[in-house]
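Late entry, written up from scratch paper. The run itself happened at the end of the previous shift, but nothing got recorded in the book at the time, so transcribing now.
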Amino acid sequence: MKKEKKFKKINVEDDNRVIANMNIDGMEMYNKRMTGEPLYNESNEPIEELDKKELRRITLSATLGGLLVGLVFLTAIFLFIMFCVYIWF
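Output as recorded:
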């Protein structure tokens, strides 16, 4: 016989805080009367532009990171093929 699992009911009280506002104009669930203030205010300040040196450094780092991940995968595939050829078969 199966044992019945007993689940405890958790009392959750809504405090009307908004963690992430998903009320977006144009979505079908949009509610004009939504209440609750967000926990943080989004900044409307413009983002600083990167100079050429910083942009090159970020691009190079991202490229090298991608190549490193690809090298790890290629090495794993190569080792698997060598295992199959020389040990398994």
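Helices lie at 52-88.
(Scratch paper discarded after transcription.)
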